Amino acid sequence: MTQLNFSKFPLRPEILENLTNLGYKQMTPIQEQSLGPALKGQDILAQAKTGSGKTASFGLGLISNLKLDKKKPQALVLCPTRELADQVAKEIRRLARMLPNIKVLNLSGGTPIGPQIASLEHGAHCIVGTPGRIGDHLQRKTLQLNGVKTLVLDEADRMLDMGFLEVINKIVSYTPSYRQTMLYSATYPEDIVSLSSNLQKNPVIIKIAETGAQNDIEEHFYKTPLEKKDKLVNDILNHYTPESTVVFCNTKQQCQDLADYLSSKGYAAGAIHGDLDQYERDHVLTLFSNKSLSILVATDVAARGIDIDDLKAVINYDLARDPQVHIHRIGRTGRAGRKGLAFSLVTPKDSFRIENLSDLRKNEVLFDDIRSLVSKRGSQLIPSMTSIRINGGRKNKLRPADILGALTRNAKLSGSDVGKISIFDFHTVAAIKRHKVQQGIDALSDGKIKGRFFKVKTLSV
Ligand code: ADP
Ligand code: MG
Predict the structure, then answer these.
(1) How many CB atoms lie within 10 A of CB 247?
(2) Which ligand has the minimum distance to the alpha carbon of residue 91?
(3) CA 27 to centroid of ligand 1, rounded, Å
(4) What is the SS3 assignment for 398?
(5) pLDDT per position as a tens digit, 336-352
(6) Which of 20, 106, 245, 448 lies deepest, with the highest CB count within 10 Å?
(7) Which pLDDT does position 337 carry in this prediction?
(8) pLDDT at res. 236
């Protein structure tokens, strides 16, 4: 495939310069195919998997078409979960950071509505959010959508799975009919086609083949009775000792039960699912993404679109009901030339799912013998990092550089001992090499950060 530079498209020079600074040297296939129609205001119906760069493919079009002198919502992006809305809002802000005074607002559930209403009164150009909360604002008349020129439905298939169809239709009815509508979906079921025909006009249809060809994945299937699944996960982990693993379960309860079981076996595991509150989900995700947890147990919805680099393994504790979802799940590993592992636990009741999967893969599923799993449990399963919590955040004007500076002062730690630093409104989580964490805490306790003393402690799930 030809790899092209963003300058092929009529993007403003400051946006192009920013892309270079962000290290976006070449376009991904979805960007190459959708940026042209996106900039021209055409409708787009696109299918591409997680991690293919969808956000910039609509985000660059969206920011280019904003009239910044009008502080009124002109673009609306709907996402299935707050985490995704958060990621999308951050990415749009990054893409737009050279444009003066642009306001991108995240309106999602899980946080109080009052501050959102206050922010809306100050005006915003671009709204990102979940259908539920956007619907609330419309009902309260705190959000005006009559100036929306661009509507994006991100992860549309997942929004339909979550039962958002009705509220999406309601939201759309508040937007002008001459708008541009871009619909992105990882899979392509019937209901997406009908959603598109209801909301779109002559969309440009873009499909980025999900053959798994770019992924290098070694896949294993095991037959197991239902009651031996937990033990089998344990055996797989002990045999393959992956540094980072996402395990998929189909229910919230199962996620929590499995995470509890794995923790009781000494693994650093955490669960994310819809029964946890926002703080708990952010907490677990932060620890997993900064390498303080080695196992994340999740439902499809909770894990949706979450961009985790460098995932070593995916385990399907429960097989996906839809074989396309299976392909999508395992496509999170084996990226960027690194080899990935995918494991699936198959109970007698799953024979139909296996048949569907074989049909989709055009390849029969072969099973491994459970007896081939021998324990090699070693240090790889222990997370390389430990997280610390600092009781100050964005609202205390702390930035990652301040934290890094404080950690490395007096040379107690070197830059390479410090991992990801995540700043929240009122606290910060920083990852530090596991055996250096005490030095990190000492360094911070020794002095002020930005002229203030902050409380510091280690974190776990
Ligand atoms: P998707 O929505 O398809 O799952 P994202 O838009 O979240 O994918 O992008 C995945 C990751 O790739 C993000 O970290 C993003 O910053 C990065 N990315 C996107 N486009 C490019 C590009 N052209 N070059 C380099 N990195 C990119
Ligand atoms: Mg995305």
Answers:
(1) 27
(2) 1
(3) 10
(4) coil
(5) 667 899 999 999 999 99
(6) 245
(7) 67
(8) 96
Alpha carbon nearest to ligand 1 atom 20, residue:
53
* Predicted pLDDT of residue 335: 76
Checking if the pLDDT of 192 tops 80, the result is yes
- For 250-305, the pLDDT digits (tens) are 999 999 999 999 999 999 999 999 888 888 888 999 999 999 999 999 998 888 76
Mean pLDDT of the chain: 91
For domain 6-207, is the CATH number 3.40.50.300? yes
Report DSSP letters for 299-338, one per residue.
-HHHHTT---TT--EEEESS--SSHHHHHHHHTTSS-TT-
Which residue owns the Cα nearest ligand 1 atom 12?
Answer: 53
Q: Homologous superfamily of 384-458 in CATH?
A: RRM (RNA recognition motif) domain (3.30.70.330)
Ligand 1, CB cutoff 6 Å, lining residues: 24, 26-28, 31, 48, 50-56, 91, 305, 307
The tens digit of pLDDT for each residue in 6-54 reads 998 999 999 999 999 898 988 988 999 999 999 999 999 999 877 789 9
**3-class SS at 202?**
coil
What is the number of other CB atoms lying within 10 angstroms of the CB of residue 237? 26
| CATH topology identical between 6-207 and 384-458 | no
Tokens 């430990």 -> residue: 386
- The CATH homologous superfamily for domain 212-380 is P-loop containing nucleotide triphosphate hydrolases (3.40.50.300)
Q: Which residues surround ligand 2, an ion (CB under 5 A)?
A: 54, 305
The residue whose two tokens read 């964005």 is 394
How do the domains of the chain map onto residue ranges? 6-207, 212-380, 384-458
Prediction pTM value: 0.61
Return the SS3 of 342: strand
